[in-house]
Amino acid sequence: MRVFGTTRLLIATAVACALPMGGAAAATLCVHPTKSGCIATIQGAVDAADPDDEIKVLPHPDIRGYRENVSVAKQGLEIFGVGKASGAAQRQTCPKTVVDGCETGSNPTTCRSNEDGDPAFLVTGDGVTIRNLTIRHSSDAVTVDGAADVTISQTCFINNGSGGVYSSDLSPSPGLTVERSVFQNGDGHDIAVEGDGITVTRNSFFVSDDILIIRGDDAVVTRNLVEASNDGELEVKGHDAVVQQNIMRNTEAGVRVVGQNPDVQDNQVSQVDDILLEVDCVADPDDPQPDTCTGGLIAGNKLVGQADELPGIDAFGGNLTIRGNTVEKAIEEGILVEGDGNVVEDNRVVRAGTENFAKHAGIVVDGDGNQIRNNQVRLSGLVGIQVLIGDSNTIEGNEVVGSGRGGIWVVEGDGNTVDGNTVKDNHGEGIANGSLATNTDIDANRLSNNRTDVCNDGTVDSFTGNVFESGGDTTACVVQVIVP
Which end of the chain is more exposed for a tag (fewer CB within 10 A), N or C? Predict the structure, then answer.
């Protein structure tokens, strides 16, 4: 039903009479420049609508679409077009209703897609929904300015300049949802928003400059697809973030989460230039200190291929659980853990590390009281598992095979334990206790076919139950690794 003006008033009045006391009927207005009963412009329909009304925007007869800058201040409006948005690597479908940033009223002869300019939609009303549109050639496609609980769904964002969806710390957008939309070839961040409780889910991003940044607590970023980016990453800065089941390929960087209690699970990141996955678990995202972390989970992520000199997983903070991840072909560390009291278990690391520096290893621990257990580390360029600096760490039940210079190496620290590991076919020492490592326990390990199975340049407190073929707790280490 499309009604406005007098007809709209009569129908609304009639429905109100049939409703219980205090009830109200939302009207549906239509937008089309020539159809009878419709309003010619989107802004005209917004101005005519009451809060919570629906506005159906029919496809414009001119292929250039609606050339407007629309301001939406009324609460609860639902503005929607015709058609759905979907995208994959080789195909894309966009809604037939187009809102274009070229030749608008404020810029009648130009496009503002690569300059500062008015957004296609400026939303200041709470609870607004924008869906099933194609928005192109704007500066910011949608700016949410201080409005809460806004939803953007089933929309294609094509070649917008400064960004796709934007809000600022001065005017945050709590409760914003961006879902099931397609972002193509944006020049800035496709999504750059601030506010608590923001959800970004089931979107597709293709050949973008930057991708996503959220600043605020309780963010949810799930099931998004990213194919190729020039300069961006999926970044969330805030506490209690959930980042799960995203797929990223051929991007500048992968996933970065900063804040307490992160939940980062089942993401797939491959072929990046920068870091694959970074988690900084800190109380103050603007002043990261690792001893302030109260916990978090990094689990089930698959990370493959990293070109720059950075880790596959970079975990900064204490009390984290890093479980069941797969890291392959990371140029520096496969998994780097900096902090105390972390658990690193059941991970698989293959071919990490390229240079003979102390941190270029499959799994590296820098901190105290960490547990490194039941991991499989294979074909590391340098060392399989390494305690760089730290006390009372436990390396237990791991399998370390085929590393270039050593299997397990305790570089520096007191009271570390190496217990029950299988270490074989490494091209240097199987287990090496460095000259700055004191009171190390080396017990019940099974070693074979290493250049030397066990060596010790520090002090060993316990050496029992090991099965090995060469070396021992009195054998000096020969295959040295450079400590920067």
Answer: C
